[in-house]
Structures are given as C-alpha cells and as structure tokens.
C-alpha cells in the first residue's frame, strides 16, 4: 500500500509545485462597455483610477502622480482617418504646451502611434479606428525614462472586444 501512496504523491507533486510557483499577475484591467475595449496595465505602477463621468474612459495615475495611463473612446463624427487624428493631436499639443517635440510616429490604415516630448513628460499616443469610433491609449512618464516608456508600450495593452 505504501508504494501506491508514494506513487500518488509523486504524481501530484508537479501539480502542487505548478500551483505554488506560478507567477502572480500584478496587472489590472479596465473595461469600457460603451466603446467595447479593455486596457491591461501594471497595477504596481498605476493605482489611482479616475473614470470619466460620461463613460468615455479612464485616467490612472502612479502613486506619486508623475506617470499615468489613459484609455478612452470617441465617436468618429467627422469621419477622420488616423492621419487626420494624428495631425489634430499635434496641433493641439503645440497650442497648449511650451515644449512639444515629436520623437517618432507611425501611421497605418486604421491606427497611428506617436511619441512626443511634452514639457517634462514623454507621451506615447496610440489610436485605433474601430467601426464608427476611435480608441486612444496614452502613456506618460517623466523625461529621462525612455526605457520605462518602451517597456510600458508592451505592458499596457489595449484590446478591442468584438
């Protein structure tokens, strides 16, 4: 009987080890039913969440409020292309801030992404056209934290629910 018990323990051991050694996820998620999208973000960095009153999106700050992520949707009532939205964003930033310097951009058929230096921030914007709306993701970190921004571009994930 003891060999049978030992065999059972040996067979169950990988399951126990698997359950106890799995990495706990620290990511949190915000979902928006109005525009059918979700955003995953690292909860250990961003914890102060403010959802918009009209249901368009969310703004989540770091603990000391020097970084943030945003995700929001907007109806595309003007039937803009990603290129139109990209130029509109750039013009608005230049009108509102002292330093606005574009560091990189890419414009596709149904999306664009751009990185700006905006005063003392590095900001990453990504917009996706979806049906008759566009979804926008913004990540902001202090100037000098380029590596963190590049890492967050892969960690903060915007997904469209169809």
Secondary structure elements and pairings:
Elements: H1 2-21, E1 27-32, E2 37-42, E3 46-51, E4 57-62, E5 68-75, H2 82-96, E6 100-107, E7 111-118, E8 121-130, E9 133-142, H3 146-155, E10 157-160
Antiparallel strand pairs: 1-2, 2-10, 3-4, 4-5, 5-9, 6-7, 7-8, 8-9
Structural class: alpha+beta
Largest sheet: 7 strands, antiparallel
Broad shape: globular
Q: Order of strands in the sheet with the most strands?
A: 3-4-5-9-8-7-6
Uncertain parts: 1-26
Q: Could you give the count of β-strands?
A: 10
Helix fraction? Answer: 25-40%
Number of helices: 3
Mean pLDDT: 86
Beta-strand fraction estimate: 35-45%
Give the SSE string.
HEEEEEHEEEEHE
> Mind telling me the C-alpha Rg?
21 Å
| Termini Cα gap | 55 Å
Describe it for me?
- This protein has 162 residues and is α+β, with helices and mostly antiparallel strands.
- The chain has three helices and ten strands.
- The protein has helices at 2-21, 82-96, 146-155, and strands spanning 27-32, 37-42, 46-51, 57-62, 68-75, 100-107, 111-118, 121-130, 133-142, 157-160.
- The strands form two sheets. Strands 3-4-5-9-8-7-6 form a seven-stranded antiparallel β-sheet, sandwiched between helices. Strands 1-2-10 form a three-stranded antiparallel β-sheet.
- It is globular and about 35 Å long.
- The chain starts with a helix and ends with a strand.
